[in-house]
Amino acid sequence: MFAELALAVALGECAPMRWISAAPDSLDLMKATPVNCLLLEEEQWTLADAAKKRHLVTLGVARNADQAARASKAPVDGVLLEGGFSRMREGAKPVIALPPRRAMRLDSQAPVAGTMQGVWPGIEIEHGGKGAVSTAAPGAIADAAAVGAHWVAALDGTFSRKLLKKDPVTLREWTRIAAHLQVL
Question: Are 79 and 70 in contact (CB under 8 A)?
Fold first, then answer.
């Protein structure tokens, strides 16, 4: 129980990223980044043990009650409830709720307060899946830090595919993004 309590306290200090692969070797991309928490989709939950060996916290993303129940039994460290469904019954794992903006609880005592949607409607790092990550990401990271907010790194599909294929240009951009994350 002490480990779960320590994790709940530490969640507020996490530097999270929505992960892009279920392959354990993809975690090599985390080297030289401040990312210490991976948000894993259900098909990626099996990656949790490999992530733990690299001292990464893993949160199983759940978008409905059934998925939340499965996440609570998966090898992930905690459960991230994403969407507007009822909180799951508290169990041994920490739970973070990311509801729609309209349902955010700013009076909560939870270690993390957030929303599944951008706080400012219409502002996004990627633009229409066209790979605008390379130019917009550093500015978006800085904007979040300027107001004391934490960010969740999320790469678009095209950038992710190129990164996993170790495309040289994309790897350079990833290094640049990681450098901006280090500063903040």
Answer: no
d(CA 4, CA 1): 5
The answer to whether 50 and 24 have CB atoms below 8 angstroms apart is yes
Judge whether 73 and 93 are in contact, CB under 8 Å: no
Q: How far is it, in rounded angstroms, from Cα 136 to Cα 20?
A: 19
Distance (Å, whole) CA 80 – CA 65? 11
pLDDT recorded at residue 119: 47
**CA 165 from centre of chain:** 21
Burial of 157 (C-beta count, 10 Å sphere; 0-12/13-18/19+): exposed
Amino acid at 65: A
How big is the chain by its Cα radius of gyration, in Å?
16
Do 149 and 3 touch, CB atoms closer than 8 A? no
Query: What are the φ and ψ backbone dihedral angles of 133, each rounded to 5 degrees?
Result: -50, -40
Q: How does pLDDT run across 39-84, given as a tens digit for each residue?
A: 999 999 999 999 999 989 999 999 998 999 999 999 999 988 888 7
CA distance 55 to 52: 5
Work out the pLDDT band at 121, boundaries 50, 70, 90. Answer: very low
pLDDT of residue 53: 93
Beta strands 95-98 and 78-82, pairing class? parallel
